[in-house]
Amino acid sequence: MKRVAILISGGGSNMVALVRAMTGDFPARPVLVLSNVPGAGGLARAEALGVPTATVDHRGRTREEFEADLIATLDAATPDIIALAGFMRILTRAFIRRYQGRMLNIHPSLLPKYPGLHTHARALAAGDAQGGCTVHEVTADLDMGPILGQMPVPILPGDTEDTLAARVLVQEHILYPATLRAFAQR
Question: Hey, is 75 helix, strand or coil?
Fold first, then answer.
């Protein structure tokens, strides 16, 4: 049974989808939900689901200080897999190397299109016929790691960033648990 640490920065809807999936014959279990934002909504949601939580605040610290505490907190939980789920910090190459091959991320576009932020606005501005989401391994190149799964979502006439984001999020909650299951079985 694989041990999964989930990193969040906000409300944690993808974290909730992952935790709810990790029951029964699922080959992994959540051991920690960690946020870089004190009081992030996802922490209370994780606690309500019975998952241990921790906070490592990034504010007012160097990146090295933040990541040293992040590593210490993660390593104390001994995860086999680290799942980034709305974790809004860019991690250093040294951090990524430490957990290389064990870290996943969900991204709200069909990578390699639109890495980084504002993915829905960029897809709409380009006149794309579809948006979607991608689960990928985390590498030192932002949102460019090996793709493990994708789910396209049609862009409808009259879509806004918000309407497209809402439909993509529904698919993220399906794709991420399914991809984590396959990854944990490797």
Answer: helix
